[in-house]
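SAMPLE LOG
Freezer: B-3
Tube label: C17
Construct: single chain, 200 aa
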Amino acid sequence: MIGRIDGHALGLVLDRHRPPKPTPSHHAIDERKPLVIDIDATLVTAHSDKASAAPNFKRGYGFHPLCAFVDHGEHGTGEPAAMLLRPENAGSNTAADHITVVQDALTQLPFDSGYRVGKKVLVRIDGAGGTHHLIEYLTKRRLSYSVGFGLTGAHAEAIDLVPEQAWTPAYDSDGQVRAGAWATEITSCSTYRRGRTGCA
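STRUCTURE (predicted):
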């Protein structure tokens, strides 16, 4: 079984066996229109004993692979880029697994070896990606990222300190204003960073 295929080999195979993607080439991506990689886990049921299969938190039995898909936008499809096969009892927010999948997904992109994609790639992960270790890795790689997490009491207090004029409309991936959605920066708020008062 092939564990992984390098980006060059995958590019040759795809060029021969599928039509061009309905999106701009990788040369057209930039910080405003990044290439999006979605990371998410899924539960796969095993109906009989299989190697590495295990019970899960939903009382099922099987596997809990962590997957990476390239999002080609509204008129495209999700293209599988990487998958880490894990037993079904694998943790949802295991930073090491997320980092492995991000690394494997990046090697599948059609860039020269050693090229740093930086902010041209946006990694999206749900709340399972909300770990310090993963965020530090994404920051060190200079990737753009969007990671979900549950609000704590400290976050709620920090949000209450933000003045009304500091809020700005939130935008969707097409640059359109999202109705009823707002964004702000709370890093400088006192309840988020100790030793400070109010929001700068």
